[in-house]
Amino acid sequence: MRSSVVLAATGLFTPPHAISNDELVGAYNAWVGRWNDQHASQIAAGEVEAKQPSSSEFIEKASGIRSRFVMDRSGILDVTRMAPRLPRRGNDELSILAEMSVVACEDALARAGRTAADVDAVIVACSNLQRAYPAIAVEVQHALGVRGFGFDMNVACSSATFGLRAAADMITAGSARAILVVNPEICSAHLNFKDRDCHFIFGDVATAMLLEHADIPREKPVFEILGARLETSFSNNIRNNLGFLNRAESADDAELLARMTAPDTDLLFVQEGRKVFKDIIPMVSRMIVAHMDELRIEKLDRMWLHQANLNMNRLIATKVLGHEPSAEEAPVVLDRFANTSSAGSVIALHLHHEDLAPGAIGLLCSFGAGYSAGTVFLRRTAS
Question: Is residue 365 annotated as part of the catalytic site, yes or no?
Answer without folding.
Answer: no
